[in-house]
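User: Please predict the structure of the protein below. I'd like the answer in structure-token form so I can feed it into my own downstream comparison script.

Assistant: Understood. Taking the following sequence of 181 residues as input:
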Amino acid sequence: MRTVRNICVFCGASAGNRPAFAEVARTLGQAIAERGLGLVYGAGNVGLMGVLADATLAAGGKVAGVIPEKLVDRELAHEGLTDLHMVGTMHERKAKMHALSDAYIVLPGGIGTMEEFFEAVTWRQLGYHDKPVALLNVGGFYDGVDGFFATMERDGFLHSNHRDLFFMETDAARLLDRLAG
């Protein structure tokens, strides 16, 4: 079993429209810090990204942010991070986040968050990494993803063992327990 020290969290630069989203980001950030783990994320100080980073830092945790230069102003790069890595492109961002982390957690988010999730799962399927990938399913937010994977399997585009490339959990503490093995 892989030792998890640093967790890459993909999440929205928006907070969404349900208070539960920000609350789970806050809870996860605190739990990451309390367990002595490091956070790797997209370096924003707004939306769920900002809530997550602020909660981790406030609880005494270390936070590494990775952001493309083009998004520094747009996503309002967090200035209080332990480490801020500026890169040239989104591809470089994901590669750097991957290099810095031992596991992936996906909180609610939009198109970019889903793209990051699917790339992490695809890389795992193809054997580029063996890091765990988990969706934190807040209030059923990711029920549709689970259903989509079931449809892909039913229609012959996904083998049943590929459903094991990621897991879903509804509670941040239980999710971190599962990552710890």
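That's the full token string. DSSP finds six helices and seven strands in the chain.
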